[in-house]
Amino acid sequence: MDTVTLSMGGGGAHSSQLLSEVFLPIYGNEILNTLDDSAALTVDTAHLAFTTDSYTIQPIFFPGGDIGTLSICGTVNDLAAKGARPLAIAAAFIIEEGFLIEDLKKIARSMRKATGALGINLVTGDTKVVRRGDADGIFITTSGIGAIMEGMDISSSRARPGDDILISGTIADHGMAILNAREGLGFTPEIRSDVAPLCEIVEGISAWSGFLHVMRDPTRGGVASALNEIARASRVTATLFEDKLPIRREVRSCCDLLGMDPLYIASEGKLVIVADPGATADILKAMRTMPLGRDAAVIGRVDATPYADQIPPVSLRTNIGTKRFVPLLEGELLPRIC
Length: 338
Hints:
- This protein is an alpha+beta fold.
- The chain has helices at 13-27, 67-80, 101-118, 173-183, 199-205, 222-234, 249-258, 280-288; strands spanning 39-43, 46-55, 61-62, 65-66, 84-96, 121-130, 138-148, 164-167, 212-216, 237-241, 272-275, 297-303, 314-317, 323-325.
């Protein structure tokens, strides 16, 4: 590993290699080493979640949203996946000289609309302008802080054999919407991004906090990468059920035509949940009462088969009854989707 490659930003095996060989040996500590999307901090008696993320998506305006909406939803979703209510957001902008002021206003209004809907404010930020050619339009970094709900103890390392694996809705919508828009593929009906805040979903299932073990939004690398990271952190194995995966017809058709596996395509408004089966029916019922959770489903389970370092920990039971491994993504399937 001599130089940084595009695939190191894809959330798959190469991203994991970058973390394990560069950042963790230098910065590693008890909190960072969990590799959760948010850090859990205790300040006096307050239990807080803290997160940061950068957005470089291309195109910046896409069906269903724009980079502004994405930058707010992505960060509050990282807080939500830790069981936290967002409190405040910070944003930093890197803008290329020549970027249209009108487009910047559209993005700022999208961010304001998203924070306003959540009842939070953007409370601090920074702006840098670089010379023409030194960036690609606009990049945004957002950071968020939230209060962890009472009873929530969510971590990627808490999956246990026998747990159910749930998803809050259809998968792969965001990634295929971006690919369709970026490449002008012209798929109809139009595929729209699912970018949305997950706070309502998490709030709605918080009554079963004691049964919730892991929550993760399956962005880069999709459901497959999210579950591989969970399995490795928890030292467990897991099986997905192909016939239970909720996938929109147009998204499935697009994936089939392009030879892409929807398990590796990003969603930006969905939540993977690993929970004690004693509460699965209630959690599922609660999610299905909400607009963002109406397609919620149980898509797999955590197995009793022991974890082994050299064997991919996640597999798929296919529609014809066979089993195939679903390893971490190698390379970069869709760069700059978030």
